[in-house]
């Protein structure tokens, strides 16, 4: 499976007459984007906003953030299962608007409790928040949506996701006839010599409605672990629908995950990248957690893996699924090394991990997520006037734990944060 | 930069164990190891005074002696205080730890000490005091003084210390965020490849150790037991009247069960961002098993159920905060002569 | 009482009774109401029995009839 990924970097987005990309500038036909979104009657209205890195914007109520991808040649489409049939993706040629995101801003129409209660996602485009939150280093087309004829929150969520993916594909498609600045080729060619075979365990959150991840257009909450070629992820085979926003993996990080990039960079050099095992976390009981853990270990064995690079999405009891999986892999004789984010309280003095197994001897830290940040008043606020949960006036300074920023856990991994002993 | 140095009677040259009762006293300028310390500090810092106390005196009368030592230190108006190095001397180490802690807490001045990592004072003071690790014996004086001087200068300039491994002190149990050049995934992959080559590697996250609590004695006679129901499931009356937080709760609450035999749908709601509450909302006994507990009470299998149930929300709970909740709830339960608790965790 | 007994063991809870699911440790929505009530009674009985048992370290009590 060979994928050519052509990058069209976006440094600036402006509204104009016709959608076009040129020299890092993406011009948008606002009317056309609006019509595309409003094709779905479940969406009542859409406002378009643009945010750039460092421009002092605070965006509230952020759901997903998607890097525009468009399939130019090959059997599937980008975001298979949503933008076309669930045909195996990862081959041919895909165009991407690099560094650009279509980002959805909305609230759900119906009240909900428990894990389905709406959780705030805040993007700060300027420091100090920008250093931690996802999306701060990207140019955003923000779709600020109002619910329409949606019958349930899940129904509206489906409309929102499809709108973002539709727009993402359309935007990237304007580059179809253009020559890219940069083309990367991704292929798991067999290395000429024996190198350690390493799988990536990508544990995602799929707990149920609103805390969901999608594989080829279908929810992952009922699945047992499965194997993907990394190119499938590059083409958008996994779409994020987990709205526990502080610890979510936005779709643009599923398509550009730091684990995938690290492994592909070293494939053939000092690693033989053996594939991606996708599992879900937050199983409802220890029995189900154990069952999933051993499926992962079995798949890794069948992939003849020597080692597993392990990461997980979200936090809380999903640590248990993750640690049991690390244990199962180690017991099978597959060496692991894992990325964990840490708790530790505001001062970093409490225990770091929710759960652990003695076999988790090789852990890389992506930083403490409950240290607090003081955020100065922003220049402008998009997505509401008050924070959804805390009720605070969003135009002022805020004092909050890092994990209330958008996709902070995933982003802190990508940005190289870690916790160190003082 | 004004530095004050604290040493014991032995290093001050007063005498050994026979002089261990030497009272707190001060001398101008460096004394004993202070001479080498002054050399290591260089021209930017001056040891303006040395405060001395016998180890026995400090250990036997700590509560009187510590303030006296502190007053002598303060009389020199230092920018930074150095105590030791104490190496593996137990009483000296404890005195250095206490002096440094009090200087920081009561006088708001930075302080640093040095000792062997297995000195008993390390366990007691490492959370509060900057301790530079040394060899076990005074043979390691030159290295100790060099390392101490580096930290002393930084503290004296009012600079925050960097990571323990970089600035050369024993970790104080605080983990602070720092940015590196590589993603955590890339660092994890490095670690994995190191492992697979069979080379030594160091985890970035040491596994936590939890306290053990001695189990309370078994209940001898359950038929006379007073039982309380407690949960972190966030089960509260509708409308969440006391505004329990759905995440990182800062409070615990108690609500009367009254004559209820069973928890009814509609009488409660769940304030907890970590689980799907649909099944619990259909029948809150699925979280707090009141119907079953009442039945055992009726059958005489347990003595009595406490009138109130206790609740907080465990979602993303800050550990130290949760420990405080637990202590406060336990005190409240004790006051009501509760013998046992059924704690339901989601 | 928890469905996630391994964590309770690790953090040092001394008497642990395994519940059914983390979103309803004392419920089994798949059973008929009568059967669910009977199971819950047995679960709380197991907790009482655990309280009457001398333990010296974190100990897991597995009640009968609890789902996997």
Description:
The complex is a heterotrimer of chains A (422), B (346) and C (68). Chain A is α/β, with parallel strands linked by helices and 422 residues long. Chain A is 21% helix and 34% strand. Chain A has helices at 30-38, 153-173, 230-234, 251-255, 258-266, 286-302, 318-331, 408-415; strands spanning 2-9, 12-16, 20-22, 25-29, 43-51, 57-59, 62-66, 69-73, 92-98, 100-105, 123-124, 139-147, 182-187, 197-205, 211-215, 218-219, 226-228, 238-242, 272-281, 307-312, 335-342, 363-368, 372-375, 380-382, 398-401, 417-421. In chain A, helix 7 links the parallel strand 20 and strand 21. The model of chain A has no long low-confidence stretch (mean pLDDT 96). The model of chain B has no long low-confidence stretch (mean pLDDT 96). In chain B, 45% of the residues are buried. In chain B, the strands form three sheets. In chain B, strands 2-3-1-4-5-6 form a six-stranded mixed sheet, with helices on both faces. In chain B, strands 10-12-8-13 form a four-stranded mixed sheet, covered by helices on one side. Chain B has a two-stranded antiparallel ribbon with strand order 9-11. With 68 residues, chain C is mainly alpha-helical. The two termini of chain C are 15 Å apart. Classes of the chains: A alpha/beta (422), B alpha/beta (346), C mainly alpha (68). The interface between A and B is large, with 76 and 57 residues.
Give descriptors for this structure.
heterotrimer; A: 422 residues; alpha/beta; 6-stranded mixed β-sheet; 4-stranded mixed β-sheet; 34% strand; globular; B: 346 residues; 34% helix
């Amino acid at each position: 499976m060979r994928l050519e990924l052509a990058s069209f970097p976006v440094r600036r987005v402006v509204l104009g007459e016709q959608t076009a990309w040129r020299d890092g500038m993406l011009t948008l036909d606002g009317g056309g984007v609006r019509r595309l979104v409003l094709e779905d009657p479940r969406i009542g209205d859409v406002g378009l906003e643009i945010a750039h890195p460092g421009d002092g914007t605070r965006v509230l109520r952020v759901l997903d953030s998607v890097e525009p991808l468009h399939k130019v040649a090959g059997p599937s489409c980008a975001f298979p299962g949503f933008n076309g049939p669930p045909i195996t993706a990862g081959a041919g040629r895909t165009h991407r608007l690099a560094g650009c995101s279509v980002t959805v801003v909305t609230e759900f129409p119906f009240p909900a409790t428990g894990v389905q209660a709406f959780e705030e996602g805040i993007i700060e485009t300027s420091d100090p928040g920008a250093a931690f939150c996802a999306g701060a280093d990207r140019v955003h087309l923000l779709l600020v949506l109002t619910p329409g004829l949606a019958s349930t929150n899940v129904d509206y969520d489906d409309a929102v996701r499809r709108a973002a993916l539709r727009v993402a594909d359309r935007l990237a498609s304007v580059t179809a006839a253009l020559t890219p600045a940069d083309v990367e080729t991704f292929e798991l060619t067999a290395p000429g010599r024996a190198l350690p075979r390493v799988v990536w365990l990508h544990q995602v959150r799929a707990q149920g409605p609103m805390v969901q991840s999608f594989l080829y257009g279908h929810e992952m909450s009922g699945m047992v672990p499965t194997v993907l070629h990394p190119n499938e992820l590059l083409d958008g085979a996994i779409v994020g629908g987990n709205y526990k926003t502080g610890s979510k993996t936005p779709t643009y990080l599923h398509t550009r995950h730091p684990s995938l990039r690290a492994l592909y960079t070293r494939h053939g050099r000092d690693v033989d990248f053996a594939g991606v095992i996708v599992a879900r976390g937050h199983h409802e009981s220890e029995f189900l957690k154990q069952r999933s853990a051993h499926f992962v270990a079995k798949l890794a064995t069948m992939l003849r893996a020597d080692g597993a690079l392990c990461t997980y999405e979200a936090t809380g009891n999903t640590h248990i699924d993750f640690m049991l999986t690390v244990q199962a892999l180690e017991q099978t004789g597959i060496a692991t090394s894992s990325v964990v984010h840490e708790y530790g309280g505001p001062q970093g003095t409490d225990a770091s991990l929710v759960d652990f197994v003695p076999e988790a001897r090789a852990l890389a830290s992506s930083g403490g997520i409950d240290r607090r940040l003081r955020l100065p008043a922003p220049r402008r606020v998009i997505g509401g006037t008050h924070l959804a949960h805390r009720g605070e006036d969003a135009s002022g300074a805020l004092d909050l734990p890092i994990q209330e920023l958008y996709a902070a856990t995933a982003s802190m991994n990508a940005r190289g944060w870690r916790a160190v002993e003082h | 930069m004004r530095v004050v140095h604290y040493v014991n009677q032995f290093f001050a040259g007063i005498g050994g164990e026979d002089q261990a009762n030497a009272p707190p006293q001060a001398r101008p300028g460096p004394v004993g190891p202070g001479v080498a310390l002054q050399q290591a500090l260089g021209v930017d810092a001056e040891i303006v005074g040395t405060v001395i106390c016998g180890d026995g005196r400090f250990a036997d009368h700590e509560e009187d002696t510590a303030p006296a030592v502190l007053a002598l230190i303060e009389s020199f108006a230092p920018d930074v205080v150095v105590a030791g190095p104490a190496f593996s001397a137990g009483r000296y180490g404890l005195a250095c730890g206490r002096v440094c802690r009090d200087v920081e807490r009561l006088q708001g001045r930075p302080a640093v000490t040095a000792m062997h990592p297995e000195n008993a004072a390390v366990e007691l003071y490492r959370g509060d005091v900057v301790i530079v690790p040394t060899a076990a014996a005074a043979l390691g004086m030159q290295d100790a003084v060099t390392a101490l001087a580096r930290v002393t200068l930084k503290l004296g300039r009012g600079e925050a210390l960097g990571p323990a491994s970089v600035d050369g002190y024993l970790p104080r149990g605080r983990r602070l965020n720092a940015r590196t050049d590589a993603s955590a995934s890339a660092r994890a992959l490095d670690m994995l490849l190191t492992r697979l080559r069979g080379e030594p590697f160091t985890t970035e996250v040491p596994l936590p150790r939890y306290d053990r609590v001695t189990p309370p004695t078994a209940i001898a006679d359950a038929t006379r037991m007073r039982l309380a129901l407690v949960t972190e499931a966030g089960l509260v009356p509708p409308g969440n009247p006391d505004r329990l937080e759905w995440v990182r709760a800062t409070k615990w609450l108690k609500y009367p069960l009254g004559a209820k035999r069973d928890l009814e749908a509609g009488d409660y709601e769940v304030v907890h961002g970590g689980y799907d509450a649909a099944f619990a909302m259909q029948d809150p006994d699925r979280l707090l098993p009141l119907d079953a507990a009442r039945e055992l009470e009726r059958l005489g299998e347990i003595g009595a159920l406490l009138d109130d149930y206790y609740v907080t929300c465990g979602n993303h709970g800050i550990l130290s905060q949760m420990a405080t909740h637990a202590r406060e709830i336990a005190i409240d339960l004790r006051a009501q002569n509760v013998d046992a608790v059924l704690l339901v965790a989601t | 009482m928890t469905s996630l007994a391994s964590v309770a063991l690790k953090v040092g809870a001394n008497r642990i009774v395994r519940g059914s699911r983390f979103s309803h440790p004392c419920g089994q929505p798949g059973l008929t109401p009568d059967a669910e009530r009977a199971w819950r009674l047995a679960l709380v009985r197991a907790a009482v029995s655990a309280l009457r048992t001398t333990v010296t370290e974190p100990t897991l009590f597995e009640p009968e009839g609890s789902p996997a």
